[in-house]
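User: Teach me something about this protein's shape.
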Amino acid sequence: MSETRTQSVSVAASVFVDALQNIADGVTELAGFEVAAISVARGDGTLEMIAVAGSSEAREQLMHHRTPISEIEQELKQAEHWGDLRFVPHERMTVAEDQLGWVPDLPVSQDPDAWHPLDLLMAPIYDDSGGLRGLMSVDVPVDLRRPDAERRLRLQRYAHQTRRAVLTALERAELAEQVRLANAARSIVRQVTSELSLERIIEVAQPALTAGFSATGLWIQTFDADHEQLGNFYTPSGTDIVLPDEMRRISRNAAHYLWQRQEVGVVARGLISTGISSGDLSRHDEARILEAMDAIDVTSMLFVPLGAGPECLGNLALTRRGGDLDWNSVERQAALDIGHDLGRALLNARLFERERKLVEELRALDSYKSRLIATLAHELKNPLSSVLGHVEMLEAIPDLTGATLNSVGAIERGAVRMQRLIDDLLVLGRVADPHKPFVAFPIDVVKVIEESLDLLRVSFERKSLKVIFNRPEHPVLALGDAAGLDLVFGNLISNAVKYTPEGGTITIDARDRVRRVEVRVADTGLGISEADRALLFEEFFRSNNPAAVAQPGTGLGLVIVKRVLERHGGTITVESELGEGAAFTVNLPRAI
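Assistant: First, the predicted structure itself:
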């Protein structure tokens, strides 16, 4: 039994100590000895006394006393074999008296059949593989005499029954400990499956998996989405394991086969079990697996498919060294459950990686589009300035005819419209560039709105518009960029002015919410149809409403507003019906 597995017995000792104590009590009551004791093997090469019955003094001195297994084995070699019993007469004993832990206070007799205080009568408890798992010992026979043939026979029956009872108790304790460790490992794996990096998942889960399954190491192989490549290979940090491509191919095929059957496989020399041997694994493949295991000094492997739904996404290999080759049913079932958990984590990580790449591609596209827009706008700006300059020169000529003046006016109107479009394109390119640094500060949106109102005051007065600004008494601080927020509120208020007929009303509200700032700009203007609302924030969109089309515009104002708000982590919504005005609501992160 490996040291790790043996140590698990000591951890579980408190679980089955009552059972061992009951066994020891039964021996003293039925076998004719005043003292009975049971010890179990520990991972440090000792036998620890777990149960003592019959004498409070013996119990006090012997409980948890440890004796090196090597010393016990030496005494067993000197012992007389009485079936399952081993008797060491005091004259053959090699262990020093002060190392025994307790010696009964008995008179020493010259009678050769009398029980000597240093006589030892033991029943070693071996498991099926011949490993020493424990020891039952008895002392102080009731009649103070060495047992005769009849009593030996009776005591052997008790020893045989005790062996079965002790091994059963140990197996149950081991099983309970294995269940606890496997469940603890799965719990930890579940906690880390929210991680989107498989390297991080392995880093956190590896200690729990190796401890929970008494494993010496592990690795994970993941499969590519197209199943054409051999996938990626992951090991814990500091672990140097390199598997050849042929082994990774064999592992991939075996994992797919096992996932279809919902089984795990065990591989060891002389032991290839479960679905691996009955699947697509040839003798050549088996030999290659065992060669690879020998190369990394592994004697046993638990092979676990990883997947989600019908798809196999990888495999997990847990390894052991030493003579403990098999993996019990509890470990196999727990490992298969973990295969499902890790499979879901793999699927999440794969989806996240796809989304990350898509975001990178979209950001690159946005960046290219922003540069293209800025370049085109700059290239158009210079010739357009020349056109407007020549228009001014033509308008200064005194003898132009009416038709010529009309043509010059049309050129000027078109040029001004193009100038407005170029200005908006430059702004759009600037606010939409994903690589442009964005530094947010607390901004009082009330002051930003007031500055926009001051700039548009002449337009209000020209159309006799009533403007109501419901100002809070305290600053309303949003986390943002002052220039960007000026674009947002400037565009929204100027749109309200543009699409509100003379004598109409514009109402602006600024409010603090729990974690956000809300600004609402409402008007009594033309309103927006349902069909137009669906396309309102698309680039270059113009309404189908003739009254709206008659107003000058580029179709970029609301696009600029939305892009600025996206960089701020804000949102914009619209409520409107055709002919009933419109209300735009902006939400921004609150600064405090």
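Now, about its shape. Confidence is low (pLDDT under 50) at residues 1-13. The radius of gyration is 43 Å. If you'd like, I can walk through any region in more detail.
User: That's plenty for now, thanks!
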